[in-house]
Fold this protein.
Amino acid sequence: LTSDLLDFSLNINPCGAPAASLEAAARALRDSHLYPPRDAGELRVALAAWHGVTPDSLIFGCGVDELIKLAVHAWTQPGDAAVIHVPTFPRYEIELRCHGARVVEVWSPDPWRLDIARLSEALGAHRPAAAFLCLPNNPTAANLTAVDVTRLARAFPATRFAVDEAMAYPLDEGLVGVASREPNVVVMRTFSKYYGLAGLRVGYGIGGGSTLAAMEAARPPFNVSAVAVAAALAALDDVAFVERCKQVFAEEVGRFRARVDGLPGCRVVSALSNVVLVQLAGVSAESVMDGLATRGLRVRDAREFRGLEESNCIRISLLDAEANARLADGLEELCHSNPESLGAATASQFGSDHRRSAKC
Ligand SMILES: Cc1ncc(COP(=O)(O)O)c(C=O)c1O
């Protein structure tokens, strides 16, 4: 790899962090000799008002990653069944397996969609202690409606549902309303993505009843630092920042898609905030990744995602306009240096790749 490596493999916010958050964090550092508030203090009150829920409907975690761990520990016993829908964010499966839970995977015939019928079938057949839904789904951007999730939650009241909305746009209502109505649903959100605070590790869940109480009982009391709480609180006030991020992500995804979709054997199959999946035909993802690496461009092999092993996709977390243009140039050069194989790709070839990656 060259020294001026551009890393598109990490799912981060290319707009950075809000300036007000950095200032608030610096101020909070002065009280580093103190433990943070056990209940996230003012952040709890502010988020409750923001979402229109009561403060006791919230739980805080060291990122959504910790909330996933808490849910697994609180809701499942070793040997219990837990449902996930692949492909999805890998943490659910990792935490469940570490805890000794039995992971039930739901596969859709079309890996770019979440299959509500099969999900429902698996819930009925296995009566799991927990189900993990990533909405919108990382990495495919597939989604379910509030009506779908409400139906599932009511049909399977003994199952606890974690709805991971880490990738949702913060100003969207998402499934917060469902979580505040249904006692077996917790929605999880993060300050890592649109708010640009991934390094400070702040996530929160919204829910109620014994579902939330069990997670709260498993939560270490000082799991979110005062610095992180202060930064998140300041970020909440900066609505203009998340609006700008949304606009920048949409512009960059649009520009990148326009270039990549015009290349032979290359197409964007999903886009979620600033993260895109590019499917390749006529050439392996591996050789494209190698070719990009020699140009100082690192992307992620999407075949690492269970359920996308045969998809021949690379995952790209877009950066700024200049970096993204360099990546598009790199892809273009690789496509044109291999015109025979890449040029031979057709829409139907992409289609069969999709179907081959499905397993029921
Ligand atoms: C779907 C999903 N859930 C959870 C996380 C982890 O978020 P956090 O940084 O809040 O731990 C990510 C991070 O990429 C994610 O994409």
In short: The pocket of pyridoxal-5'-phosphate is lined by residues 11, 63-65, 89, 134, 138, 164, 166-167, 190, 192, 198, 203 (CB under 6 Å).
